[in-house]
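Subject: Predicted fold for Ubiquitin fusion degradation protein-like protein, 772 residues

User T.R. writes:
Posting the sequence so we have a shared reference for the thread.
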Amino acid sequence: MSSPTNAPPPLTWTSQFSVASSSRGAQLSGDKIVLPHSTLEQLLSAAPVTSPEYSSSRSFEPFNPFVRDTERFGSGNQIQQPQLPHPLTFRLVNPDNGRVVYAGIREFSAEEGEIVLSQFLRGSLGVEDENEEKRDSGKAGHDQSNDIMTSGVNDFGISKAAQMITVHAKQLPKGKYARLRPLEAGYDPEDWKSLLEQHLRRNFTTLTNREVLVVPGGHGIGGNNEEFRFLVDGLKPEGDGICVVDTDLEVDIEALNEEQARETLKKIAAKAHRPRGTVEGSSSGGSLDLFRPAEGQVVGGEYVDYELASWDRSQGLEVELTKVNEEQELDIFLSPFGSRQRVKPRLDEHVFAEVSSESPKRIRLRSTNAELDHAETIWISVYAFPSNESAEALVVPRKFTLRVRPMDTDVVGSASEGNPETAPPNPSDVQCKNCLQWVPQGRLFLHENFCLRNNILCPKCLRVFQKRSEAWESHWHCQYDGAFGSTPLSRTKHDYYTHTEQTCPSCSRSFSSMFRLAAHKTTVPQEGDPDVPNAEALLSGLTPHELADGARTTECHLCDKIVRMRDMATHLKHHDLERFSRPSPRLCRNVNCGRTLDGASKSGDTRAGTRRGQGPGNDIGLCSVCFGPLYVSMYDPDGRALRRRVERRYLTQLLTGCGKGWCLNEYCRKGRENAGIGNAAVATRDALPMIRPFLDALNTTEGHVTPLHFCVDEANQKRRNLASMMAAEKGMAGKGGYDIEWCVAALEAEGGDLDNAWQWLKNWAPERAETH
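User M.O. replies:
I've generated the structure tokens; pasting them so everyone works from the same file.
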């Protein structure tokens, strides 16, 4: 690794641009900017020139020709090329007011001489919108006779619209910590924690100290968009800004003052006073069973989620919500849980819904419905639309009964129940012209007199109301569709669901209704252009918007790379593929040696030593350590001199021994004594016949499979014996275990640690086929 003194110099670049109109940056979010294409060429010209990192071998082995060649190569003849830092970050300065903010680059596609800023950056830098400038200049032109101000030109004759921003290339340190302070009391971490993480991940490359971070929330009562505002008040490493990409950022939320902290705790405690599953809170939900209804309750603005795990897939399903007061406005949302839909149904993301104001509410699904294909389970959510009443009324739970039952396919599309125009129950009954009810012939006169005085029939929906009732006064019909209701809350809900423009938070695309937004989020991949499906989304099998939700990063436990959580399964499959395609380790020919020829690393590389120029350096199958005592620099093309050296080493071991108390080499006098082999002393006339087969096979094609027996150090011998025991054991689930060469490589990579060696085998080594 390069030392800090050899680190490349920082990127130095500065330029000034005029701010493009705010409409050009409407699609930008967070701290993103767009610069001209020529800026990229300037940055590359200003970038420091670096070379590929050269790592010299740790130890020099004179008998290893690969090491000598690597050392001679040194650092010469290396390719020089400019290298831009990643990610690119910039320091933006407004010279008019001195405001400073840090930003990340979105792309290089702006007009020459212009910079496109997001709305967040425009506010942070104090850049005025064009509409405000026109209004200000209009007022000035109306009050003054000078026409120069009317045209939007200041005292120096420079157009006010051409506001300049100075841009500096600034490489920020990776952030470790950030402290945020809410600007309002009552922020509950359950409400904004996931939103904050998602907002930072999608929209920000940097964080600037003392800036206000606005996190968009969900839809409030009546469709108002909720926002969470935080002041960035403290960063680590300390400074004006940090980079938040590819780093583990710890975030603390602290109140601005004691009064705000007390108010926040008070509001959170009030919410916690009615937790789920209690008398005052929403039900906990859970599993649904066919034919067994589920009784529950839900607080306004909350969901109760149920799961149907199994059902007869040859039949349809009917989901029914009953025992609901029409004034409470409870809705059903349903989504199959499978490869394409993996989120619980919500107002802005669901597949099926029943949101009418009538009761009971039903959703009927055919067995041939395409959305049910490959569905693992079905999620059903009951949602209470929040009312516009007082806060006390909002927390009153609304009771319901939810049941799911099989449904014959013929039932779907049958005539509606309770049609007033059906045949009379009795042949003598006649129909009242006012309320359309069937009454006996003799009671018709009295019934009509009472009915005409007190009841009124809605000609559109044929529902009967009392003339002076609140339900009749609040009864409404939508002029654009066939919806109707009898409460102000139902009208508010219908207008919000159906006739209020909604915006997708991922792609900023607008839709005419909540249902069109839900269809967009459950059918269209949410990265890139929504009109052009993202190939990654189509191939991943994830649900729409799941790509963005799974963009959080984590560290792979195998290779230490930063991987997106949604890609972790695919990333681990690549490791499995490498595990089965990785070349097997080559063992040292010395049966007492616990090393491989090429060296093994903790990351599973079975050729790690050879890649560093520390390969064996010989052609007789010994590792560099075992071959060291046999190495000489003389020319020996036939290997005769090498054979004589091997013969002398064998004779020395058999006649004299190594004298080590741990040696168990059967071809060593001391090893034979330690192992209890009879007649440890071997005469010369007996030693020569013992070693002749090994000498004869030394330079033959069978040489690499014919063992050699040289004494080694204690740790090396212990690793080899431990590897033999590991190879004799069965693998997991009764499989064949691991071959001896993989066990030797595991112990070599982990320095002889048995537990770590087993984990190394599990991560990097293929198990051998089971033998019977």
